[in-house]
Amino acid sequence: MTDIGLQYLCDLVNQQQSDTLLVADEHLDSTTLLSLKAHEQLTLLSNRYDVYIAATENNITCIFNDMDLSELNRKFDLILYRVSKEKAIVHHIINQAPAALKDYGQFILCGFKNEGIKTYISKAELYFGEKADISKGERQLKIARFNPHALGEALDDRDYKQLSQIEAPGKIEIFSKPGQFGWNKTDQGSLLLVDALKEFIHEQTEPPGNVLDLGCGYGLLSIMAWNLGAAKIIATDNNAAAIYSCRKNFQHHHIIGEVIADDCAASIHHQYDMVLCNPPFHRGFDTEKDLTEKFVRSASHHLKNSGTAFVVVNQFIPIEQIAALHFKCIEVEKQNKSFKVVRLSS
Description:
It is built from ten helices and 16 strands. By secondary structure, the protein is α/β, with parallel strands linked by helices.
């Protein structure tokens, strides 16, 4: 299902022949992306690596970064933005918009009532120093047009660019930042996986050699695997904020390995002794089952014949049936009311 708000902005893009920036995150699905007409004056900015790859393959100029408009090193006549799910990102984009606009440039913000668009518009009006020109679309979509000129106090973006230390088990120092799922907490599913991993490694004659952390986030599983004796770790994620955080944690903990921006390890062609994975529950318009199957399939492709994969999912996801298409041995290692950890091998 195509996002109505983003499709509205894409239609505007296709009507423009001016310097235009479209800021897009997980709302941009492949169908909407393909509806964009590539032209020299269009730039797409995304914090999603899969969006960057798809845009580039379709000759659309695209920049992949952690929603940093200043890295574009240019100004635009028009900036279009469909609000993100995370408030800190929305505030971060609104704060940056005036500096990235030409004189008399226009910023267009859109979103739905249940996403807090009314509040975002009110805050932007205070910051931009003017009332928005507001129109309505389908299903309670609101579109606000601004010509920023007299800036007030910037919106609270939770110090978006800054890494901060979060609480972690065993007083281990872990750094994270806004812009990624669960950025300010330790995920309970990942902790359950770590418990299963500890028990497994303690039963082995030696710790795993090369480990792939698939969908690494800020790197919690990588750090724990390293502390349990892993020799080398490759961590990968689709989200720019996650890559930034995870690289900081690799550096801080002196982890031997690499952090790679990629879409579910699609461009990584090595195989590993162990794969660790806490797949996302949703992304854009993919369902939980679709995403889980994608990550499980990738785990099977990247695991050595003698290797072991650990995957944690919500209890309601039928991972046993999904994994049966790719693995011979499937064992539930740990579970609680919310999560289950499965061990997979050939």
